[in-house]
Structure formats: C-alpha cells, structure tokens
Design a protein that fits this description.
By secondary structure, the chain is of the alpha/beta class. The chain has helices at about 15-20, 40-50, 65-75, 85-90, 125-135, 150-155, 175-190; strands spanning about 5, 25-30, 55-60, 80, 95-100, 110-115, 140, 160-165, 170, 175. About 35% of the residues lie in helices and about 20% in strands. The protein is globular, with a radius of gyration of 15 Å.
C-alpha cells in the first residue's frame, strides 16, 4: 500500500519546494482567517508558481467566489473544506476536487479528512472511527501525526494518506526540513 503524504500549512516558498523535492503528494495552503498558517489571495500565486505537486487549498466556511478566486490564482487542484460546509455547498464546487474534514461517511467528497475537532491543533482525532471509515472511503488521516508516530498510525488506520502540519514544524507555518526528511524516510521505509 502506497500512502500519500500531504504537507499542510505551508507559508514559505522554500518549504513548498523542499516538501516537493522530498516526494510530497500534496502541498496544503490554509486560507482560514483565524489560522496562524493563513496565506492570503495576494501571496498564493507566488507560493505555488512552478510547483508540480498537487496543491490543496484549505478553507473554513469561505464563500464560493473566494474559493474560486483562490483556486484560480494558486492553480489549486483540491479544495479542502474544514468548516461547517454542507453537502449542497460541496456539490457546487465543480472547478476542483473536493475533500471534507468530517467523519460523515456519505459526505459528497473525493476524500474525507479524519482530523481532531480543531484542525492544526496537533491533537489526535478519533483513530477507531477513522480506521472503520477507511474500509469504505478514501481518507486522509490528520491530527497529531509526527515522523515518530506516522508508521504506527498508518498501520493502525490504513488511510489513503496522511496530512501533517504542526508535526513537521519549528513554529506555526515554519517547516522543519529535518522532520520532513525523517517523515519521508520512515514512511517510504515501511513501504519497501
């Protein structure tokens, strides 16, 4: 099983480039106004220019015109909904793949993000529920994942991918390249 890796909460170009060079499958950019890792519409094009890795925009209760603008400016491939968005709202997003932070099995999204109640907190979500859900849906496991516990969590939950932010940082939005390298070494090591 090849587990996909998303490095999220990127605020610096050098971190995006480094994660891409390590082999990240997805790079995440947070647009939530309250987040310490927030990037604005004015910065997203510079952050994502020339990147070949799939780019994910993370939104919390944003309106459709804002999401569309962010997708266009950042050439984003995926819209990750992390607020109280309804299935009807998700279905209106026909200009990018949609992921949703929820444990609701029938939510209309390509992948479900199984995370802690507050995304970006570095706390664990419900791993038992995530493992059950991963038997029927593609999930990205998020919340409290670090290079030290990633392999154990992958074996326990069997997600399609893992989503890390605080687990590979010095400080919010400032990635630790040594931790990112270690993460890839651990996860790729289990696959060989």
């Amino acid at each position: 099983m090849s587990v996909k890796i998303k490095i999220c909460g990127i605020t610096r170009r050098e971190d995006a480039v480094f994660a891409e060079q390590c082999g990240a499958d997805y790079l995440g950019f947070v647009f939530a106004p309250a987040s310490a890792r927030r990037v604005g519409l004015e910065r997203i094009a510079d952050l994502t220019a020339g990147l070949k890795t799939k780019k994910v925009g993370v939104f919390v209760n944003a309106d459709l015109p804002f999401i569309r603008k962010a997708v266009t400016r950042g050439r984003l491939d995926v819209v990750q909904l992390h607020g109280d968005e309804s299935p009807d709202f998700a279905e209106k997003i026909d200009f990018a793949e949609v992921w949703k932070a929820t444990y609701q099995e029938d939510f209309p999204a390509a992948k479900l993000i199984c995370d802690a109640p507050r995304g970006g907190s570095g706390q664990f979500g419900d791993h038992a529920k995530a493992a059950e859900l991963s038997r029927r849906r593609k999930i990205m496991l998020a919340g409290g994942i670090t290079p030290e516990n990633a392999v154990e969590l992958i074996r326990k939950v069997h997600p399609d991918g893992i989503d890390l932010s605080s687990g590979v940082e010095h400080a919010p939005g400032i990635k630790d390249h040594r931790k990112i390298s270690e993460l890839f070494k651990q996860v790729k090591g289990m696959e060989s």
